[in-house]
Amino acid sequence: MLYGHIANCDLGLLVSSKAKLKISKFGGREPDIFFVPKPLFHLVGKNLFKGVPPLVIEILSPTNANEDRVDKRQEYAGLGIGQYWIVDFPNRRIEVYELRRQPDGTLDYELLDSPSGDDVFRPAMFPGLEIALATIWPTEFEDRTDD
């Protein structure tokens, strides 16, 4: 739905985890998804984005939750990425964080919105987009019991 909105409104590109985001001179990250608006296309290289995207989205899994919530959060804040979304499928929640300057002068994210369950998600970054969250949560394994 987000991809379709970005494409239909000709806003830019939604990039998947196959492309790297340059974090420093020596390293990068591969966010699950990030948004490159059209004015930043000149910073797109071969499988590497050399700019600062306005939005990075990470999808939690049991093996990466701490990395997404701590390590990546700090790195993305340090880069100056304006919004950081965490999609938490097991808890059926999207956490929308916005970068803010803290009283001590550092940059960190503050929770802006946390739509969940059957809410309709209306991200301010993409006016006119409405995502009925009930349609995106996977249901294939809901009745599964693990031994």
Looking at the chains present, what oligomeric state does this protein adopt? single chain
Order of helices and strands: HEEEEEEEHEEEEE
Number of helices: 2
**Form type:** globular
What Rg do the Cα atoms give? Answer: 16 Å
Distance from N terminus to C terminus (CA atoms, Å) equals 35 Å
Account of the 3D structure:
The strands form 3 sheets. A 6-stranded mixed sheet has the order 1-4-7-8-9-10. It has a 4-stranded mixed sheet with strand order 3-2-6-5, with no helix packed on it. It has a two-stranded antiparallel ribbon with strand order 11-12. The model has no long low-confidence stretch (mean pLDDT 88). With 147 residues, the protein is of the alpha+beta class. Strand 5 (44-45) and strand 6 (48-49) form a beta hairpin. The longest helix has 15 residues, at 65-79. It is globular and about 40 Å long. It starts with a helix and ends in a 15-residue tail after the last strand. 15% of the residues lie in helices and 34% in strands.
Features:
alpha+beta; six-stranded mixed sheet; 147 residues; four-stranded mixed sheet
Entry summary:
It contains two helices and twelve strands; from the N terminus they run H-E-E-E-E-E-E-E-H-E-E-E-E-E. The chain has 147 residues and is an alpha+beta fold.
